[in-house]
Automatic annotation (TrEMBL):
Gene: comB
Protein's organism: uncultured Synechococcales cyanobacterium
EC code: 3.1.3.71
HAMAP family: ComB
Name of the molecule in the record: Probable 2-phosphosulfolactate phosphatase
One Pfam short name: 2-ph_phosp
Length: 245
């Protein structure tokens, strides 16, 4: 297995697709996707474009859909929910399809949607992702951070590092596993912060943005590792369902 970390969707190669692509948006889209599926949502359908989301969701029975829209950390006017994982209770999302568009996370999912296998990862489901990779041994894996509007984010890189680090049986295996320098750097970031992930999220620029919006509890939740044994897998273009390990 060769693992490549890309910090943003824009940095992924455009002339090839991997066997397995893993989209990461710790704050907060992929954390919310994992939580919604754990709470019994039928599926999460991701859109980068709000208009396309509204059109597609119109065709779905109103009582079986939830429209999640986030821009700049805030709920989009007219949408049912913003992007907080705390909104994803079984009462609210159980049995429903989530139609979701967020500033960055749904864009990275869309960027890798042509890969043979597409997964969504966050810190809260790190172990579920690792188990899948260990069981299936794809030849090439991309972990794609969502960043913020084209720029680097600490929280997505540390999650990439957490996944990569768990794949190493011995430290020297890094030479075999790492497909690019970003992978080595992500592992080093994780090693530095693994016992203090919440403080890293507090230092992250998007973490600071969310704290200004009073989302302290969201950061605490998103900083937890291996909380849920849920693996979001793309079943059809843009539609993620839960694959329980
Ligand atoms: O950028 C995104 O996709 C969102 O996850 C941002 S937020 O955490 O909902 O503000």
């Amino acid at each position: 297995m060769k693992l490549f970390v890309y910090h943003t969707p824009e940095l992924t190669p455009t002339d090839t697709v991997p066997d397995c692509a893993i989209a990461v948006d710790v704050l907060r889209a992929t954390t919310t996707i994992v939580t919604a599926l754990a709470a019994g949502a039928e599926a999460v359908q991701a859109f980068s474009d709000l208009e396309k989301l509204l059109q597609a969701s119109e065709a779905w029975p109103a009582e079986r859909r939830i429209r999640v829209g986030e821009r700049g950390g805030q709920t989009v006017a007219g949408f049912d929910m913003g992007n907080s994982p705390f909104d994803c209770t079984p009462e609210r999302v159980g049995g429903r399809r989530i139609f979701m568009s967020t500033t960055n996370g749904t864009r990275s999912l869309q960027r890798v949607e042509m890969a043979k296998t597409v997964l969504a990862a966050a810190l809260i489901n790190r172990q579920a992702v690792v188990q899948h990779l260990q069981a299936h041994q794809p030849n090439t894996v991309w972990i794609v951070g969502s960043g913020w509007e084209g720029s680097y984010s600490l929280e997505d890189t540390v999650c990439a590092g957490a996944i990569a680090h768990s794949l190493l049986s011995h430290p020297e295996d890094i030479n075999q596993l790492a497909g690019n320098d970003e992978t080595v750097a992500a592992i080093a970031l994780y090693q530095q912060y693994q016992d203090n992930l919440l403080s890293l999220l507090h230092q992250a620029s998007h973490g600071k943005r969310l704290l200004k919006l009073d989302r302290h509890e969201d950061l605490k939740y998103c900083a937890q590792t291996d909380l849920l044994d849920v693996l979001p897998v793309q079943r059809e273009l843009g539609v993620l369902v839960s694959h329980r390990n």
